[in-house]
Structure formats: C-alpha cells, structure tokens
Amino acid sequence: MCGIVGYVGPKSTLDVLLGGLRRLEYRGYDSAGVSVISAAGLETRKKAGKLDNLVGEIDSHPLPAAHIGIGHTRWATHGAPTDGNAHPHLGGSALKLSLIHNGIIENFAELKAELVADGVSFSSETDSEVAAHHIAREYEKSGDLVAAFRFVMNRLHGAFTILVIHEDQPDVVLAARRNAPLVIGLGDGENFLGSDVAAFVEYTKRAVSVGQDEIVVLKADSVTVYGFDGQPVSFDEFSVDWDASAASKGGWSSFMAKEIADQPQAVGDTLMGRLSADGVVTLPEMSGLSAADIKALDRIIIVACGTASYAGDIAKYGIEKWSRIPVQVELSHEFRYRSPIVTPNTLVVAISQSGETMDTLMATRYAKELGAKVLAICNTQGATLARESDAVIYTHAGPEVAVASTKALTAQITAGYLLGLFLGQVRGVVPASELKALGLDLLKMPARVAEVLEGLDVASDLGAAMANAKSILFLGRNVGFPVAMEGALKLKELAYIHAEGFAAGELKHGPIALIEEGQPVIVIVPSPRDAESLQPKVISNIQEIRARGAKVIAIAEEGDPNVADYAEHVIYVPQTEPMFAAILTVIPLQAFAMALSTAKGLDVDQPRNLAKSVTVE
Ligand code: AGP
Known about the structure:
Blueprint (H helix, E strand, L loop, with lengths): L2 E6 L4 H11 L7 E8 L2 E8 L2 H10 L7 E7 L14 E3 L5 E9 L2 H10 L9 H16 L2 H9 L4 E9 L2 E10 L4 E4 L4 E4 L11 E4 L4 E5 L4 E5 L9 E3 L15 H7 L1 H9 L19 H6 L2 E6 L1 H18 L3 E5 H4 L10 E7 L5 H12 L3 E6 L5 H5 L2 E4 L12 H21 L4 H12 L1 H10 L2 H9 L5 E6 L3 H16 L2 E6 L16 E5 L10 H12 L4 E7 L11 E5 L7 H19 L18
Parallel strand pairs: 15-16, 15-17, 17-18, 18-19, 20-21, 20-22, 22-23, 23-24
Antiparallel strand pairs: 1-4, 1-10, 2-3, 2-4, 5-6, 6-7, 7-8, 8-12, 9-10, 9-11, 11-14, 12-13
Helix pairs in contact: 3-4, 4-5, 7-13, 7-15, 9-13, 9-17, 13-14, 13-19, 15-19, 16-19, 17-19
The structure holds 2-deoxy-2-amino glucitol-6-phosphate.
The site of 2-deoxy-2-amino glucitol-6-phosphate has 15 residues, from helix 9.
C-alpha cells in the first residue's frame, strides 16, 4: 500500500516528492517522509500521520534546495506507525545512505541478527532499516554502490520495492523490485520513479514498467535497468493515458463522487475497440490463446478479492451462458491454500483494479504452477498482475483513487461480459445472432449508465435520511445477488455499520429471522421482461419481509408494473438485457452508501482501517 516517489533533475526535488506523495495518498498510509541530497549532504524529514504532519515538520525544519531525493508514505506492517518507524531509513556507519521500501522482507530477522552480532544499533523496529544497513555496509567494503545494492537485493526474500540514495553519489537513485510495484517516468533531463504512474503523471506520460527482479540506475540524463544477475535488461516505454487532472478531484466533493460520475466513460472506454457497431466482440489481448485452446477449455476459475470478486460473480452468469464453460469464482486467499483441480485446459481469470493485491498475485502464481493459463482483468497499466499473466484485458476506468471501488467495478463487469461473448463467439455454442444482439445491447450501456446518474438523488436522499441506521440488509437473485453483496460491502466500508447481502431465495433458510419492525431492506428486483423472470419470486420475498415489518427500498427496471405496490421507495433504472442489469442496479447502491457515510461525517475517500491496494497477504 505504500507510496513511493524518486526524482533526479533540475526541479525543486521537495515539490516533486510531496506532490507525488499527495497523488499517492489514496494507497492508504499512516506515516510519511522524504530524503534529499544537497551540497550540505543527505537530509531526512519524516513524521507519523498524514502528509500535513510531514509538511509541518519541514516548515519547522526546512530542507535545503536539492535536485535528487526519495519520498514515501507508509502503511504499517512491521512496527507501529511512529516517527521512528516512518521511512526513509538511514544506513551505514555515518548514516549517509537513505532507503525507502514498499513490501515485506520475509528474512529480515536473520539479516538483522547478522547486524546485531556486529554491534549495529537500530532506530526503528522495521524490516526496511535492516536493508539500509546491509547495503551501506557492503558499499563501505567495496566502494561500488550498484554492486553493493545488487548483492543485498539478491539476499532479500519476500516482496519489496526499494529506493536508495547515498551522499557519496548525489546524482543517482538506485531502485529494485520483487513482488511489488515500480514504474519509471522518463523526462527531458530529469527522471522519476513511482509505485504507480500517479507519482509523476503531472510531469511526464512516458513510463516504463520495471520487471520482476530488476534494478534501476536512475540519473537525470540516463536510465539503465539490470537484472539481479547484473545483466543489462532492455525495457519498453508506454504512454500513460491518465493525465494529472484525472488524478485530481476535478471539483468534486470527493474522489468517490467523481469516480461514480466517471462510470459512463469507464464502461465506454472499456468497450472501445472491442465491440463493433454490429455487435461483434474482438479481443486481440486473447491472441495468445488459439481458437483450439479456447474450444478445449473445460473450466474457468475466477480469482479476486472484495468488490472485484463480485464483478467475477456477476460475469460468471454471462460467461457460462454464452460459452457453456463451467465457471467458479474463488476468493484469491482461499483458492491459494486449497488443492483445486487445475489442468492446461483451465483458464484462471484474475480480476484486480490495482493489479497489486498480494492475495490475487499469490493465487495467480499458484494457478500457473498448477499449469493453468492466466488472464488478468486489470485497471492499472504495467501492474505486477498484468506482467505476470499470459494475457491482460485492461479495463480503462482511469485512476480509481477512492478506496471504495466504483467505476472499476462497472468496468470489470463490462470486461467480464466482453470475455463471455468473445468465448461464445469462438466456441460457437450459442447462435451468433443471439450473441450479436447481446453485443448491440452492451453498446448502449454507457448511455444507460449516464441515465442512472441523472436520477441518483433519490438514492442519495434515502442514504442521507438513514444516517442513524444500525443495520441494513440487501437482497437479490441471479445477477442481482452479487449486486446485493456489493451494496452491503460499500455500506460496511463507508458507513461502518452492519450490512449484509443475501440471495433472496435464501431468506427462508435462516436470514428472515433478522427481520423485525422497521428493518431497512434494499431489494434488487429482476426485470419482469426476462423470459425466466425471477421477479414473481422476488416480489413474494418482499411480501414475506414486509409482513414482518421490513421497510423496503426496491431497485427496479423502468416500466415495471408490479413493484411499486410492494415497496416504500422504488429507484428505477433503464431497461436493458437482464444479464446486463447489474451494471446499472449497483450504481444507486454506491450513491446510497456514499450519502449515508457523508451524513455521518465520515471520510468517503479514505475509510478507516482500509487501504486502496492490499499489497500484503
Ligand atoms: C472495494 O471497495 C474494496 N476497496 C476492496 O474490496 C477491493 O475491491 C479489493 O481489495 C480488491 O482490490 P483490487 O481490485 O485492487 O485487487
């Protein structure tokens, strides 16, 4: 979850570092710090708490002008969030080396024991400081900073992105990554490093993804990449399609409000270039799988966490229906420690907004060990998951800064439907005309999402009115069931109250015991137009709970003639192919949760205890 920024060039380093850390705040953190090297040598400032605390510290103890530096926001793993445990950490007999680290060094205890045995004293409880001392000591022995850095990187086990500067070499930032994110920003007479492109997108859109077990030697006028074996590595540049304004609130009250409003574009950009005007899906990203491979597939396992897993649950209905391949959705952290049945004809689909969720990374690595092909559905270009998968379908939702995922979800569902239609086209088990009709309906989703946004005040007003609710239940069937689960998760994340999603059919098997007078229940109601409509069953579920005192808010399709008589409030969404309704019905639930949280005076962008990307298991 940590934010990392590195810079060397003519600009005011402090401005670049603090600006970059601001744009990385969304990653979730509990302390921050910077180191710069000026003519006066290496200097460091760091503080527990939010960035404003660090800025206050720097105001009290100004840093000299500098043209090289590193900056860090920390989400505590080893050691409490204190000033002493904040990064950067210093190393060496004269503390001339400064280091920042994202991840976990799993063998730090043995590495620390070596240092203790040599009488080294520590100023923190962190694993990162151990690396700082080891690199500095190797350098003091050899006089070769790059060799010393590489030697120690080869000794570290676990997950790490590490940046180092040293007073003796004030023109170079060294960096390395293993199982954690790192990208390079290429400038003109200046260069940048970041945990993601948001760190430097204000200054350059030219970026390079650093691969597994690679070392970067970054200078103002040169960037060289090596393997941990010391061999030079070539790298490919990509152009960032985010701009600095996209990573700013753009005048919205919160990132979450902005991102809810971004959804028509997020869905539209994810469809762009993949769905023709006549409803045919093309996925060049799948070119690594031949038609024969696709026809041989006999199982799809979707691995993901949290909201991304609900995207998988929704996509499952379409993928199974159109491709006739059995689909199971697994929580990444459960899949990783089971003994699943995986063969070369298994396609594992990993869904992740950040592409850095360690649970999902571990699940996909496990799946590959077992022989599966891995397809990533990811929103972050160059993310670790993307680089480690056999194929990647990028969602194009743009930077999702708010911890509570919204536009990434609707984009993930869209990508999942595209995948299902594509697999169906190749396997030819469903009439092509049926798939084309679905494709044509999918093309209309961005406009329908925009329509939903126009009517969000109803959901927002209801949310604000229920700020004192202690428990809210969510019910749904078919694709509405994962939507109910997601609606409950949003409320838990944002309003810190009990919220639970149920399959409506499960009510009579226990949950109905929860219903008492005044219990708010939000019900996602299926379309009455669906040939296999489950609507009558859901209407009777509503009658069962209302008979026991529930207060029902229904999310229903425009023109539904039945639902109004059975609900205290109805929020209507445009008609669509019933399978696609999930993209629409989830949005009022996002607005409801955000409004209830705001009415409680809570921080909708950075909810307590949560981070945007959980990069530890
Ligand atoms: C969603 O609102 C949460 N922030 C969380 O459940 C998130 O979806 C989950 O941690 C997965 O993140 P990822 O998509 O980046 O892998």
